Amino acid sequence: MSNVTLGKSNTKNQTVITWVDEMTKLCKPDRIFWCDGSVAEKETLTAEAVEKGILIKLNQEKLPGCYYHRSNPNDVARVEQCTYICTESKEEAGPTNNWAPPKEMYQKLYQLFDSSMKGRTMYVIPYLMGPPGSPLTKVGIELTDSIYVVLSMRIMARIGNVAYEHLGQNNDFNRGLHSMLDVNPDRRLICHFPQDNTILSIGSAYGGNVLLGKKCLALRIGSALARKEGWMAEHMLILGVESPAGEKTYVAAAFPSACGKTNFAMLIPPAHYKGWKIWTVGDDICWMKPGADGRLYAINPEAGYFGVVPGTNSKSNPNAVKTIARDTVYTNVALLPDGDVWWEGKDGPIPKECLDWKGNKWTPDSKEKAAHPNSRFAAPMTNNPALAPEANDPKGVPISAIIFGGRRASTMPLIFEAFDWIHGVYVGATMGSEMTAAAVGGLGQVRRDPMAMLPFCGYNMGDYFRHWLRMRKLSQHPPRIFHVNWFRKDEQGNFLWPGFGENMRVLKWIVDRCHGRVAATESPLGWVPRMEEFDLANLDGFGPEQFSKVQAIKADEWKQEIVSQEELFINLHATLPKELIFERELLIARL
Ligand code: GTP
Ligand code: SPV
Ligand code: MN
Fold it and tell me: What is the pLDDT of residue 2?
């Protein structure tokens, strides 16, 4: 598209035009910019963002195509307290979600949105969640007054005409309206209206609050649609394991925010796994549906990674290091004098001096971290050397295993396998994890985070569990279900398990289980590896003794664990499927 038409109206879909018109009358922007996803558009908007100081151009020799952004220090993570599911009844949203009646919330929000874009441009971003041509793919349109959101969305989703082509003259698209307003936590709301396929987000300019395709559409609205339409929308990475013989096995894994999905999805096996290769299909979100052959087929609806920066280095995640070396937007990391970026846990020396994520001078003596713990990169998935070609396959990939995992300093062994699907649903439903910097508040506390979906399930959590149970009946060949914990610690507070690339050893056992190639021992929690069949070769300082420690099932810890599950079960009692109560009884009987 030539520059003459840049930003001009570019759709004939009357429903879209009418809706944009209505929202324009409400928000009263000075200008409307219709995005088409072109390279010319990217260049124009990037230049504008730099000129306005929203982005800083990084050292282009070191980081070609990379830019830097600082968010408002009051706006650095998802805010669960400000996130609402607005269904007709409170029961539909369930006790784990904030709820408000749709009418009331629309009224309140429309007051806030009234004139919110005066003096600003409203960008119209048509986007696809999913590869073009997939039956699972959905269309969203996000209206936003943030150029940073536009430039991030074009990394995170397939934006532009590809979305209008998928939509045609249809009116089936998600309506997303976002305004930064004055970025004030008192006027910050992220509201979902599943019955209208609508999202209204105001008062934030960061991450999952404003990149509406991600947590809002792909998970909260997505999960509600999935239940209605017979599929699953999950907070899961998807990866493919290729054996030296070329056998490909796909697994999906649900770990809560900042608990290792991106790292696991990009894993590079240890040296002695010659010929084994891990392919990334997705690092955060998984949409799955039973195929004609009775297996679950999964797509990654996203096109980029919005990943945690701190701790990323060539030892922990070499593929991520390559992925974020170009065409990446960095948010809230530290800035070096030469226009390079830095963060805690980066390769190389600690800088003598830099600007921290707030723009203040930082030295190694500073008490605060240079990069915010939830600083993030937005990078296109096509930069990933391990990107699975299937990431663009409209059919998706058949899933052989689902892996649940939390961040647990105690109690949870490194690996076990559920006895069957229903037991696996119980294991996922009762998952616990220490809270991380990905959301505001409660850092380090263990909370129940069912299927890593506590902040993302768009309806009643009890009904969500029932939907999981129902999916067993819709798929003749369901995946096996596993639970992992990379984060168990010893008495001194050191991680017992080396993690990262070494997680391949656990993955290998999982893959072998899926293909019926390895036996297992029955434990109270589920099937566990036999020591002699778990690969401990070439693992420095980690032998059978350490393996026993990391796999230990301690009666006192498990008594506590089961008691702490009680709170969730009581909270959900009105809709909790009885299968889960029985599973709990069975676990108590086994312990
Ligand atoms: P979201 O993007 O918030 O959904 O996070 P995520 O689940 O993708 O988490 P990510 O892979 O970004 O990892 C988060 C943090 O966990 C980083 O600081 C990692 O260094 C750390 N981490 C990841 N894998 C491991 C592991 O195997 N062992 C240990 N000890 N830490 C890990
Ligand atoms: C998460 O918190 O799980 C994320 C980051 O992936 S955000 O997009 O902010 O939700
Ligand atoms: Mn996530």
Answer: 54
Residue 396 structure tokens = 């998706």
Pick the residue whose CA is nearest to atom 7 on ligand 2: 208
Determine if ligand 1 sits within 6 Å of the CB of residue 315.
Answer: no
Sheet holding 67-69, edge to edge: 56-57, 67-69, 329-331, 376-380, 304-308
The answer, yes or no, to whether any atom of ligand 1 lies below 6 A from the CB of 317, is no
What is the full DSSP assignment across 239-256? EEEE-TT--EEEEEEE--
354 in catalytic set: no
Query: For residue 478, what is the DSSP state?
Result: P
pLDDT for residue 1: 46
pLDDT of residue 306: 98
Ligand closest to 317 (CA) is 1
β-strands 341-342, 248-254 pairing: unpaired
Query: Residue type for 61, please?
Result: E
Q: How far apart (Å, rounded) are the C-alpha atoms in residues 480 and 116?
A: 49
Distance 260 CA to ligand 1 centre (A): 3
Say how far apart CA 399 and CA 47 lie, in whole Å.
42
C-alpha 284 to ligand 3 mean position (Å):
5
CB distance 399 to 514 below 8 Å:
no
Q: Which of 263, 300, 313, 323 to mutate to test the pocket of ligand 1 (most atoms within 8 A of CB)?
A: 263
- The CA distance from 224 to 228, in Å, is 7
Q: In which residue ranges of the chain is pLDDT below 50?
A: 1
Residues 293 and 474 sit within 8 Å (Cβ to Cβ): no
307 lines ligand 1 (CB under 6 A): yes
Q: What is the pLDDT of residues 93-129, one digit of tens each?
A: 999 999 999 999 999 999 999 999 999 999 999 999 9
pLDDT of amino acid 4:
78
For residue 422, what are the CA distances in angstroms to 186, 419, 472, 583?
A: 42, 8, 8, 8
